[in-house]
Amino acid sequence: MEHGDRLVVAVSGGVDSMVLLDVLVHLAPRLGLRLHVAHIHHGLRGRSADRDAALVAAEAARYGLPLCVERLEPATRAQGTSVQVWARSARYARLEAVRRRARAAWILTAHNRDDQAETVLLNLLRGAGPRGLAGIPQARGRILRPLLGVWRAEVERYAAAHGVRFRDDPSNRSVAYRRNRIRRQLMPMLARDYNPRIAEVLAALAEQSREDDDALMSQVAALGGAALRTRGRAVGVNRRALSNAPPAVARRMFQEAFRQATAGGHGLTRRHLEALARLADRGGEVPLPGGLWATASAQYVWIVPGERGTRRFGAGVRPARRDTGPGVALPPGRWVRWAPGRCSVRVRRATGGEIRLSRRDPYREILHAKVLDEPLRLRAWRAGDRFQPLGLRGRKKLQDFFVDAKVPREARPRVPLLLAGDRIAWVVGHRIADEFRWRGEPTACVAEVRFAEGCDGISAGSDAALGR
After folding, report:
1. How far apart are CA 172 and CA 62, in angstroms?
2. Do residues 149 and 177 share a domain?
């Protein structure tokens, strides 16, 4: 904050926010701060909430401060969204609207150090990663939390010593809410039976995790445009940058892309990040919070709003029709175009130093040279297709293989199959057949795929069709 700043103080009527307001009133003349009180009435607790608003209004008037009371409409909560998630999102949206109207520099909330410890434990139980262990940030966007280093007991002592009026929200005593169960049951049990300083340990963990996360995020920022790209409302993460980055940095690339796509909304859980890592490696689609989806193209993993599937990218991407014809002949040594996936495939004989097996390149495979002794063709999958994936003992339905590889149903017709005679030798971009594996002979068959020049997959879905 700077001298002369106008601040919106979020005041619920509870002890934390009423103490914050009283402290700011005493500091404002010395720091040259101009205060604007904002109270959010969630419309959930009837007369009790009305009395909260009345107390805030009375104290704002006693301090001689401008007041804005914002009323939320619970009926606007989307079906399937929890009350707490809806209330939090709506509350911050209204506070930001108040800040803009008041032309204030900052929004101040009264989260304290106990809140921090409880949040870390709550996030840990939810399965959050290191960013979740960082807990509540002291500053996020235009939000500042000046009491985050102060314990709740200190806040209560201040209130008693200075005669600060406040109201006790009865819903804070209900163990129907998970956070209240953590506050009233789990934290006391951990302090009693395991570590009397558990709250201090968790709060310190949050500070350390925040420092570590900031250092890793600085590496994401240093990558700049090489890591992230925006196209309209979609945000893409460069797949090459992902493969070259340490896993911790790669996860934060996804977090930053999601933050940009949601304009600063909630972050991703460990489960989401693991799914995105698999998507970057194998392709497919992943649902994300807030009605977003992630999908893979040749160069990027895109996080996009809207409906599932290729329809998000407009008329330029449509599910391919099932190909029931004989397929496309594939003479050795020639690139042959596979139109549904906007790619080309080539097989050729290789000997000696030309045979280089790279498990990290899904678009180049080494097969047994006997593949070249058969008539070769490309075609789409058909109901009943089976093959023996490399490394498995038995044959498998191709449909089941696609399900396990998380290839979307609408994308499967765009995956070319390399057939040697009537047998599947390679599900292009995914797996070769075990019977055609190269066993180290001096001669082999090299099979390769490349995409149309300038195609990154977002306009045609070619790479996503290959599941990569």
Report:
1. 27
2. yes
